[in-house]
Automatic annotation (TrEMBL), chains A, B:
Keyword Cytoplasm found: no
Family of the protein in this entry: Belongs to the class-III pyridoxal-phosphate-dependent aminotransferase family.
Cofactor (UniProt): pyridoxal 5'-phosphate
Protein's name according to its UniProt entry: 4-aminobutyrate aminotransferase family protein
GO terms for MF: pyridoxal phosphate binding; transaminase activity
Amino acid sequence: MSLSSPHPANVDSAASEQALLERRARLLGPTYRAFYRSPIHLVRGSGVWLYDAQGRKYLDAYNNVASVGHCHPRVVEALSGQAATLNTHTRYLSEIILDYAERLLGTLPPRLGHAMFTCTGSEANDLAIRIAQHSTGNTGVIITDFAYHGATIATAQLSPAAVGAAGVPARHRAVAAPDTFRDGGRAAHDFARNVAAAIEDMRAQNIRPAALLLDSAFSSDGIFFPDASVMRDAADHVRKAGGIVIADEVQSGFGRLGQGMWGFANYGLAPDIVTMGKPIGDGHPMGAVIVRPQLVSSFGSNTGYFNTFGGNPVAAAVGIAVLDVIEGEGLIENARTVGAYTGELLAALQSRHGMVADVRHNGLYFGVELMAEDEATAAAKTSSVVEAMREDGVLISSCGPRGNVLKIRPPLPFARDNAEQLAEALDRALSNW
Amino acid sequence: MSLSSPHPANVDSAASEQALLERRARLLGPTYRAFYRSPIHLVRGSGVWLYDAQGRKYLDAYNNVASVGHCHPRVVEALSGQAATLNTHTRYLSEIILDYAERLLGTLPPRLGHAMFTCTGSEANDLAIRIAQHSTGNTGVIITDFAYHGATIATAQLSPAAVGAAGVPARHRAVAAPDTFRDGGRAAHDFARNVAAAIEDMRAQNIRPAALLLDSAFSSDGIFFPDASVMRDAADHVRKAGGIVIADEVQSGFGRLGQGMWGFANYGLAPDIVTMGKPIGDGHPMGAVIVRPQLVSSFGSNTGYFNTFGGNPVAAAVGIAVLDVIEGEGLIENARTVGAYTGELLAALQSRHGMVADVRHNGLYFGVELMAEDEATAAAKTSSVVEAMREDGVLISSCGPRGNVLKIRPPLPFARDNAEQLAEALDRALSNW
């Protein structure tokens, strides 16, 4: 599991990985980039563990999609059973989608009365924006300046992390993310004011905001958990200007932050729409848009909206199973307690390694910001730490506009000994500098 | 199975369906509309059959998603097996996605060299448009005037069937669909000329076409199979103006048309991009974009495109299973022969029922156009025929800008006796006028 014990099949494995990479480039093309200098050929997953073709075991401290654990038997059973029974669309009646909607809505504030189902988080954010524009009659959307909200044309235009600032159309506004660390947390302190200024700037160009769209953990921006009051003030500004508030819980939702099911609740926010994706089906392609009924009273009749696969009985069965597991295995409690313990271990590293400038977290979602003599060096070192961890058998990644924040986001059944393995590996990786 | 033998549980079932509808309206909201005056509460599917909560059996002559048959055991086995083993994203290497890409690309012209995977047909068309705009530098898209291409913001703007003509932005152009029936097939005859005129009209407003986007069966427009030459000429016009050709095979692909796997091949068309959805995974949420490599050489590096669930090992296993079944069970041959037989039975109805104005088909995809004294009456009668068929245990639907075309599109294992049941039920429904 460590650099000092190379696997005997390493030479063969390098050759076969090279062949796989070439075949991949030929068939899938250059859009398909792999993680790591030496990409991993995975063949099996179970709980917090992933296994490669040579039988090497990796502690997964990154993949939020398999959120209740890779290949959870309860989820697989629900998937298999329903797929063998009925899998059709929502133009016919089905009880299981209603059972699922009821369960999901039960985890949310009562004013969010309707559940709509998509197949991805991108589709969920795309639909949320569409509903926001349709219901407000406005067009502009306010996001943070290194946000990621999806891969459809409309959501990519709201994802400067992917398309760059120049890829955001003029009708939208990207405000500084509420960075709680740099400049003494000035951007976090000024966040609501910056949103107000963006609205003013829009107004000067005769644009009105349809929505404020925020990832509750500011995942791509670098992982931040600003004060509740600035978040609520920002929401107030947008509402006063005629817009609505969309909480993007695609990354932060389903118990990850350890205080409850949803990240926005930590701010005392009352969003008008909540979007969900990644962890919702433990890997099954699902997304959801939870919405105040008033916003969609005429949406369907004016747009003919329909999603062929969204909310089919198989997705509903999987969704229920995921909720069952979160509840039955106490995963929110686990995210809180093991998250706190992991946070302590990471904070201890900060005292031992000068390059660790900030450790921030909520539940099992961690941002570890690394600093060096200049930004380019910090980014290169961050990347090297991620690579060294992979060689050491622990999977993490990085994020943020400067690429200098370690992104740690393990499946929720992460245990105390998993946390120790993570911290020890990170200690070794940081010690190499 | 017929109106003359009402199910004994009908009264109870009506009450329970009413309760289900009320619960549905409360939880999912008004966007979720159900088929039929008395919506069907489905609980099981197998092959070409669907079963409701009262045990009533329906012949499915409409659902193209469960294209190799509802709950096909080979597909369910592949799904269950892979979901229990590994389900993660494409940033890691995996062989099964390459095996699937190779199989899928093997069914297509060699110049279409790369496969990219999404989770829905909407996402596939959205990505295709994004690639077209990115690679050509142009913005306009040409579609038909009652097309449907998806539910994302960008694809809905190219779906006048859902959003109306007013919902199509000014940079795009909707041309008359190549209707092979009305006015002696004039719109079909003039199709290429109409595309050329749209390009001229764009040019006058300084817009250049990024793509011609066509459903190979013109599904929403009323189901047409125009002459190959006009389709090729239309494609030539767009290419000369700097645009590319996208074949939308979300409805027509995977053997339905009985001549091969893809509808565009019937026209001798050489598309630059082919999009896939609905039948690709027999109900599993999948989509694909097959593209000429030149078009995506810089797409990924400029856009950071990534799809979290798209092309995961579970989707690949399901996709391979679907191709295995199409091949192993001779479903393309079945679509051709049973399609021809069904076509004969429907044509015989035309000679007996004056309101049947046109029967058109290719393989197992049928449009039956009904006429009456005026358009409103024809639409109402078409709707009544669909309802009567449902009461008689056969599921079909309708399409077209006037709502007067019966849309018949059964799963591919449709057998000769299924065709006879369909034709007999349609005969009864038409006899009531």
